[in-house]
Amino acid sequence: MTQISGLMFGLLALLIVGSPAAQTTYPEKPVRFVVGVPPGSQPDTVARLLGQKFAEAWGKPVVIDNVTGAAGNIAADRVAKAAPDGYTLGLLGQAQIVINPSLYKLAYDPVKDFAPVSQVAMSPNMLVVHNAVPAKNVQELIKLARARPGELTFASGGSGSALHIAGELLKSVAGLDIRHIPYKGGVAAIPDLLGGRVTMMFGTTVVVLPLALEGKLRALAVTSLKRSSAAPELPTIAESGYPGFEVTSWYGLLAPARTPATIVGKLHLETVKALALPDLRAKLADLGLEGIGNSPDEFAAVIKSEIPKWAKVIKESGMKPE
To answer: Average pLDDT for residues 165-185, to the nearest whole number?
Structure first.
């Protein structure tokens, strides 16, 4: 099912009289969104935008709880172990759900311990460099890195993040020797990148695109297979000599396993309604994000299919489990 048809399906479902999801009195108190990254990061921004729409629709506050550390695994574990009553939810990315199982010994099972609600949004990542780096495109950056093995560095929002994997994948396909410098979230890496203490970074659009537009960083490419609507002038890495290169970021809403189906259904329909609002769509587009709004079953299928996909990417990139 396409993203557009998924949204239409959800909106039609809102018209079904007598729907169990429509009959529930949930929520009767504030709802908490747990996010595994610091404020100002892309998933945090998505959580706040969605939470605001939920709060407006329900008349109940939605509190954003930034639980950082361990590549987002602490946040995911907190959601997995929360009471299955719909009052503690996770706005989590694919790192915690489909990437980290291949990199860490997790205290939670990404398939069994969650009730998927909906993927909310996805975006490409963006390759940016410090302005002192002479490379003006991906090919020039590759040439520079090959001429200076071991000297160039790339920052990421943490080991095992999609941003880290993007760098490792580029190293693998281009045969580069560049060093990874992990930070606690992409925002935390920015001061060192602006100061020239790291060479480059794969960053989310919400974090690095404004800096590139202000001329504080130089953007070279995006990591999706198609160009980003937020920066259509930037080529993809696939266009730049590495066909098939793709490392996008998605964020989804998940509840603890055993959350009642009526609550999961209401959360899904509220997500679909929010993503259909023109002002939210515009805000997401400005950040280079595309709304998704698929069903709980579709989201569950994505999780099951992407875990082996990322395991293969990680193995081929040479990354080692921690």
So the answer is: 92
Phi and psi at residue 221, to the nearest 5° = -170, 170
Q: Sign of the CA dihedral 9, 5, 56, 205?
A: positive
Residue with tokens 């920015």: 190
Q: Do 117 and 17 share a structural domain?
A: yes
Phi, psi of 124 (to 5 degrees): -75, 165
Average pLDDT over residues 8-35: 66
Tell which phi-psi region holds residue 71, choosing left (phi > 0), alpha (psi between -120 and 50) or beta: left
Distances (CA, A) of 241 to 64, 123, 146, 249, 313: 41, 21, 15, 22, 19
Residues 149, 167, single domain; the answer is: yes
Q: How many domains does the chain have?
A: 2
Which residues, including other chains, have CB under 8 Å from residue 210's CB and lie 6 or more apart? Answer: none
DSSP letters spanning 121-186: EEEEEEEEEETTS---SHHHHHHHHHHSTTT-EEEESSTTSHHHHHHHHHHHHHT---EEEE-SSH
276/303 same-domain check = yes
Q: What is the pTM of this model?
A: 0.80
Contact (CB, 8 A) for 262 and 204: no
194-249 tens-digit pLDDT: 999 999 999 988 889 999 999 999 999 999 999 988 899 999 999 999 999 989 88
pLDDT exceeds 80 at position 3: no
Burial class (CB in 10 A: 0-12, 13-18, 19+), 318: exposed
Please say which residue of 222, 238, 264 terminates a domain: 222
